[in-house]
Every structure is written in C-alpha cells, then in structure tokens.
Amino acid sequence: MAIRFTTEAAGDKGATNAAGESIVLGGGCARFIELDAEKMGEYFQTQGAFDCVWISEAMSHLPDKQLFFQNVVKMLRPDGKLVVADWFMAEDLTSAQLDADIKPIEDGMLLPPLCTKAQYARFAEDAGLRVFSEALDISQKVAKTWDISWTLIQSPALWAFAFSQGRDGIAFLQAFRAMRRGYANGTFRYAVMVFQKPDQAAVDGI
C-alpha cells in the first residue's frame, strides 16, 4: 500500500533508481522494506547510517523496547536523531487507575505493558542516546480521534461480529472506550519525544 501511494504521488515523474530498489520522488527517493523491528539493527548495520529515525505509534507494541533503542544507536550517524510518537501511561498511577484505564487498553490492543515517558528516556539513555528536547504531550490534540472512533463502531452488526470472534474481538472494541476514558482521566497520554546520538569525538573532547 505504501509503495502504491508513493508511486501515485510521484505521478509521471516517479521512477525506480538504477538498482530498482527506490522510488524517485521530488529531489529524493523512498524505499519500503518489510522487516522485523527487533532485527533492524543487524540489517541496517551493513546498509549505512541514517540522519533520522521516526517511529510512530508502533513502539508500544514491541515487547523488547530496550532492544529497539539499542538498534537505533547502530543505525544513526553521530548527531542523528530518533523521533518517537507513542502511547504512554501517566506517572505514579494507583492500582485502581491501572485496572480501570490502562489494563483494558493493553488487553484490547494486544499490547505489552505500557510505559511512561520517563521509562522511554531511561531506555534511550541506557542505549547511549541523550534527550534532545523535552517530551511534548499532545494528548488533548489527539483524544478526539477516539471519540470519533467510538462513534464509528456503534454498528450492531460490528458488535455482533466481535462477539462471534470471542473474547479478543470484544476486548478490542471495548479498548476504544477505555482509551477515551484514559484521555479524559489523564491516565493515558500521547507524546512526542526526540533523542540524539552524541558525536563521540565531541564527547571525548569535553
């Protein structure tokens, strides 16, 4: 799908490069690779480094987040940046808040335990990255997405299908309501974080 959309955006000017791997688009090119996120460090270590790595609403689904940060360090050039946009749970939640708001989201969306922004910062620093800018919480700007989504899933036929799929199907739809509740209660957050790989030569010179 990504390849189709990029090719359509390129229009008549779209073409593949000499190796037939990338789609020429404007002054640059795009290449799409299907790859296990836990193996990307091994793959890209021999493919050259990147100025920037973006990950949007995906890391919360990864069981081994520490490994992801370690892989990113292998991929980035010195001074390169990692931009993370993701779901988080708020700090210092009570057991009651976790049970009411967070666990239904983890259960319905098939997530490993959600992290806090502070945990991501620790993962990054342990891997050798440093915080480039403070986390930007945009929860209020994205919360309406789940109000709209909840409205869209009110079809009785959709709920009947969910029931036919068993517990997981019902839990998935109920997670939409839990996400709305989490945003409203401040227990569930959405933030953008930016980390940077230090230039080792500069670090050594300090």
Give an overview of the whole structure.
The protein has 9 helices and 7 strands, in the order αβββαβαβααβαααβα. With 206 residues, it is of the alpha+beta class. Helix 3 crosses helix 5.
- Cα distance spanning the termini: 47 Å
User: How large is the share of residues in beta strands?
Assistant: 15-25%
Shape: globular
Mean pLDDT, as a whole number?
87
Main-sheet strand order equals 4-5-7-6
H/E element string? Answer: HEEEHEHEHHEHHHEH
Please describe the biggest sheet, giving its number of strands, its sense, and whether it closes into a barrel. 4 strands, mixed
| Number of continuous helical runs | 9
Rg, alpha carbons: 20 Å
Give the fraction of residues assigned to helices: 40-55%
Query: Structural class, from secondary structure content?
Result: alpha+beta
Number of strands: 7
Low-confidence runs:
none
